[in-house]
Amino acid sequence: MTKAVVPAAGLGTRFLPATKATPKEMLPIVDKPAIQYVVEEAVAAGLHDVLMITGRSKRSIEDHFDRAYELEEALRAKNDTQRLNSVRESSELAQIHYVRQGEPRGLGHAVLCAAAHAGDEAFAVLLGDDIIAGREALLKRMIEVHQTHGGSVIALMEVEPEQVSLYGCAAIEATGEDDVVVITDLVEKPPADQAPSRWAIIGRYICDPMVFDVLRDTPPGRGGEIQLTDALRELAKRKPEDGGPVHGVLFRGHRYDTGNKVDYLRTVVEFACARPDLAAELLPWLREFVAKQRS
After folding, report:
1. From CA 172, how far away is CA 199, in angstroms rounded?
2. ω into residue 17 within 30 of 0, thus cis?
3. How far apart are alpha carbons 282 and 270 in whole angstroms?
4. Per DSSP, which regions of the chain are E strands?
5. pLDDT tens figures, 26-64
6. Distance, CA of 283 to CA of 279 (rounded, Å)
7. Cα torsion angle, 113, 116, 121, 124, sign
8. DSSP labels, 211-225
9. Whole-angstrom Cα distance, residue 126 to residue 42?
């Protein structure tokens, strides 16, 4: 497996007006856009062929992962090697391709836009809103599970009962491996009392190429959108020769949801506090600020 698909065509309405002209995927986590962390995760797992599914007003994503010759020359003239290397880093990460999703018709439709690029190969899907702590471990494990069992693999994280309606949730059966389950059913954003479990789908998938045929026949669901969850639900019923089964990897680490305002701010603070070049000044100020809020 060499290919990763990163859907990045969303409108980012929760971050308006900041996202009126700036893609939500380009909002910075300290000094690096969120989407770069996602591409770095794909590359760390061995996926160097990345397809971005973009839309209107997303040109800055392409510019970010392209060379910036004038800026590089200016930094070179100043002998600013550190910043020069940071600017070059994004353009040298991976072989990145782009295709536009003409209209926002859901995650399933965005993945379907990758059909010509992925062809008959299994591929990973990484949502740009999610940053995974220990980024390489989860995706590598999912690839291992796919190589062992075939079919598709989704990442699952246990959430509180009041949160299940925010996610697609899975009905699961145990296997002989502590972190691997068989998916028997998937429900998109169920009411808490109708959820099959508290194991929610997070933004990492390994998809069998048969998913494209299923998506072409999947009718629009909630909100008039084509849901990837619905296609995976169909694949979960199938035999290996028809694109099944679907397994889940139980993720017990930390996930940063940068599509949520409060979680985005938490992510920025946490990442900044983990930086040696920032923590020495930021942490004392943060402690003082919190103390003032409590007084």
Report:
1. 8
2. yes
3. 11
4. 3-7, 28-29, 32-33, 49-54, 95-100, 123-126, 130-132, 152-158, 168-174, 180-188, 199-207, 246-250, 255-257
5. 999 999 999 999 999 999 999 999 999 998 778 899 999
6. 5
7. negative
8. HHHHHHTPPP-GGG-
9. 8
DSSP label at residue 152: E
Locate 180 and state its tokens: 């691997």
How far, in Å, are 65, 67, 75 from residue 80 at the CA level? Answer: 20, 17, 5
CA dihedral of 177, 180, 185, 190, whole degrees rounded to 10? 120
- CA-to-CA dists, residue 56 to 75, 97, 224, 287, angstroms: 31, 16, 20, 42
Domain-by-domain residue ranges, the chain? 3-259, 260-295
Whether 135 shows a pLDDT value over 70: the answer reads: no
User: CB–CB of 260/166 below 8 Å?
Assistant: no
CATH architecture of structural domain 3-259: Alpha-Beta Complex (3.90)
CB 147 within 8 A of CB 56: no
Residue 277 above 60 pLDDT?
yes
Residues 6 or more apart in contact with residue 293 via CB below 8 angstroms: none
5 exposure class (CB count in 10 Å sphere: 0-12, 13-18, 19+): buried
Q: Which residue has the tokens 């962390």?
A: 37
Q: How far apart are CA 232 and CA 213, in angstroms?
A: 11
User: pLDDT digits over 210-265, tens only?
Assistant: 999 999 998 887 678 898 999 999 999 998 888 889 999 999 988 998 988 999 99
Beta-carbon contacts of residue 228 (< 8 Å; ≥ 6 apart): 106, 107, 108, 111, 125, 205, 211, 215
Q: What's the pTM value of the predicted model, to 2 decimals?
A: 0.91
